[in-house]
Amino acid sequence: MICSHPIIIKTRVIENNQQQYLENEENLYLYERKVVAPEETLLLKDIHDLSYKELSGSYGFLYIHTIKGVRAYMVREHPGAWMKAVLACI
């Protein structure tokens, strides 16, 4: 593993007729030839670009542009160092 970055996974839950959102922290892992997310693995050769959009003071979205579409990951911390590491491997 080269490096990792924390991401937030939000899950909607309905209990007692009330809607709630649960947040779990997972990680994106960068390896020599792939990025491993909680639910999929992206090969570096399939990644075209990365971008980041801050939504508020506490959240933003990291976008991974691939040949199969764009993957969006919610983050609390700016992913600049992680993005730089990925772009150096592409």
In short:
This protein is mainly β. It has a single domain (3-89), classed as Roll (PH-domain like).
Structure description:
The chain is mostly beta strands. It has one domain: Roll (PH-domain like), CATH 2.30.29.30. Helices cover 11% and strands 60% of the residues. It contains one helix and seven strands, in the order βββββββα. It has one helix at 80-89; strands at residues 3-15, 18-30, 34-36, 41-43, 47-54, 60-66, 69-75. The strands form two sheets. The protein has a four-stranded antiparallel sheet, with helices on one face. It has a three-stranded antiparallel sheet with strand order 5-6-7, with helices on one face. The protein is elongated and about 50 Å long. The two termini are 15 Å apart.
What keyword list fits this structure?
elongated, three-stranded antiparallel sheet, four-stranded antiparallel sheet, PH-domain like, 90 residues, 1 helix, mainly beta
